[in-house]
Amino acid sequence: MTVAGRVARLREEFDRSFGEPARVLECGTVELLAVSAGDRPYALRLAEASGVHPDRPVTPLPTEVRALLGVAGFAGTVVPVYDLAALLGHPVPRRPRWLLLANGTPPLALAFHELDRHLRVPLTDVVEGLGGGGGPPGCLHGMVRLPDGHRPIVDLPAVRELVHRLTGHQSVPEEVR
């Protein structure tokens, strides 16, 4: 098939998709992003995020907080960017490539190294409860069972609370500073 033929087919499929009923996600599933932060595998709940961006410029800030990488601009808003690996207490081997905008206010972006894949898993593959894998207490909540192993699930609201403490509102564990 020629390039023009493929473009015409894609255009037709795109136009036809607006006439079809909206797809509904299956009940009993959860959508996750499988990521790597500090060379460790994690999962993030897609419902707790509002966007994922690769290679976004981050302007460094002078700071004593090891996890604060700086700020980035998103739709005219300046957003602080924190390294997820550093927040979870891991060494940071290199500058992260990906930024995830967390739902909620104030705006918050978390940087991680690799976006491994998108997952839609049955709820039965998610083990709720406090997750293992280290990190500050409460930042990992549950595990997801996958064919290639288990991944701790990062609780983004708990990470937001940790960042809130890092900004001086509450005491912070020494390993995160």
TrEMBL record:
Top-level taxon in the UniProt lineage: Bacteria
PROSITE patterns associated with the record: CHEW (PS50851)
GO biological process, one term: chemotaxis
Gene3D superfamilies the record matches: CheA-289, Domain 4, SH3 Domains
InterPro entries: CheW-like_dom_sf, CheW-lke_dom
Positions of the CheW-like domain: 29-165
Membrane-crossing residue ranges in chain numbering: none
The protein, known as: Purine-binding chemotaxis protein CheW
Protein's organism: Actinoplanes lobatus
